[in-house]
């Protein structure tokens, strides 16, 4: 027990050194917005959320430059001038939102503006002029948006103090890719744009609930958990040989026998005596994960799997618990857990047992 406690304290110390909230980085962006506002003559308000989301210290340092450019880009290119905003019925003060969150097994940082949105006709025209695409090429909206990340690409007709600094979105994209991340764009004409940075949990710390399934330790992200419950008799119904539902929160929710899906054991035929963790996906769908034991809530350091194992269905990453046992971190948003694929059968074995435990915890809602 003393060794377990010591290991836990060492792990906590390592996390405290490596993991830091993005708050310090986000606070720097307030100054960037003020400078960009002064340089462009635009009135801008910055809204920040998720600043306590923790990320590896090294990542925070490497995000500073690309995030700075994204903020400048939102003010300089995204937001309309004060006069133009008035003409289209918008507030003369433009808004830029900066947020961070754990989502779908990754860290997501987003920069959103309420500006004019991407002029895709103009982007397409410039791409054709530069020879990047042919007039006859059929491009989707996403493909047109991604042209903004091509080297040297710019829609700016005259160089400003901000846009003339020589750092294009291609450099931003390269910096994010160097962190094994990716950038996505969502844009609505007249309403604004969102640039979303997605980074693997390899470079992060996660709040999770440690559970046990067939002798295996698993971690479910706290942000996905609605509540933990032990259903009343008769509240679990079999739809088919491989598909069950549970009645929870006034609706029927699909049951995920994660031990069976991941190849740890045969399917539980009478799951009414088990413990269920009710989770919500990013799309708003609910599912009930079948587990044997709920241990405790803790903060864990993430270890990525993709480098050595590729993409593992249903798994976001892994971690080493304080007692030295390895635990896989579930990704409730993975296709394995969403929609009709859930009841189709197992994903295949993930190998030999990784650990076991016997402690249990009270059931209850997480928030």
Which H/E pattern describes the elements?
A: HEHEEHHEEHHHEEEEEEEEHEEEHEE
Number of helices: 9
Number of strands: 18
Give the second-level CATH assignment, the architecture of the largest domain.
2-Layer Sandwich
How many domains in all? 2
User: Which class of the largest domain in CATH terms?
Assistant: Alpha Beta
Mean pLDDT: 80
Strand content: 25-35%
Spell out the blueprint of helices and strands.
Layout: H1 2-18, E1 19-21, H2 23-40, E2 43-49, E3 54-56, H3 57-78, H4 82-87, E4 93-103, E5 106-113, H5 120-129, H6 141-146, H7 169-178, E6 182-188, E7 192-200, E8 205-213, E9 216-221, E10 225-229, E11 236-240, E12 243-248, E13 251-256, H8 258-261, E14 275-280, E15 286-291, E16 293-301, H9 306-309, E17 315-320, E18 326-330
Parallel strand pairs: 2-4, 9-18, 13-15
Antiparallel strand pairs: 1-3, 4-5, 5-7, 6-7, 8-9, 8-16, 10-14, 11-12, 12-13, 14-15, 17-18
Helix pairs in contact: 2-3, 3-7
